[in-house]
TrEMBL record:
This is Adenosine 5'-phosphosulfate reductase. Its cofactor is [4Fe-4S] cluster. Binds 1 [4Fe-4S] cluster per subunit. Residues 36-209 form the Phosphoadenosine phosphosulphate reductase domain. GO terms for cellular component: cytoplasm. The gene is cysH. It catalyses: [thioredoxin]-disulfide + sulfite + AMP + 2 H(+) = adenosine 5'-phosphosulfate + [thioredoxin]-dithiol. It is an enzyme of class 1 (oxidoreductase). Pathway: Sulfur metabolism; hydrogen sulfide biosynthesis; sulfite from sulfate.
Amino acid sequence: MSAPALAPELLPAVAQRWHTLCSDLQAIARAHPDAVFANSLAAEDMVIQHALARLALPIQSFTLNTGRLHEETLALIPRIQERYNVHVHVLEPDPKTVAAHVDAHGAYAFYDSLELRKACCHLRKVAPLTQFLQGRSAWVTGQRREQSQTRAELHAVENDTSFGLRKFNPLCDWLHDDVWQVIRHFQIPYNPLHDQGYPSIGCDPCTRAIRPGEDLRAGRWWWEQRDSIECGLHQSPIRHTSN
């Protein structure tokens, strides 16, 4: 699914979502001065990045460079820094741990079993994120309920019991077209792979373009069962909170 060409003016419902997002981010910044934003460099996260910049909020942005990302994805980092005059902190896995895993199992072991795929995700994503989040009180993500069945019960505010902090998902009820209408309206930079049929973009070997009628995350780990399509960042036991 490519990025849809939508009307240049925001529809009222989408404009309200945008204003709510800005208000939510301001409230998060007030309540959690140490909050950080996980920018996966996907379309959803670029909307949040744009809002943070427009509001000049002190929420630090970071991204995970797994060592297997598309060139188009990595090229978005300097575009963000130039457009918004912000620093995107890049997290990377421990090179010795990655080398040991590859030596033991091969560079493409994640195709062989779910266990090896999750092990690869853990050392390239979960481990550096765990270290980065240690001691913080909150993080912000661009997850949406519409993305997959594993996110259907997503809440705007959650207690992330895996990382031990508050987790905010301010786009949880946004639709695919909402995201793209805001991107077009504000001319927000985005990953060009979205125009090539990649609505969800992860590591290069683990991501493909989707086919007509497939769900938005069908291109992620497509060789696995649909109930396993998470990398471990958002699959921990999470308890909802209304506060």
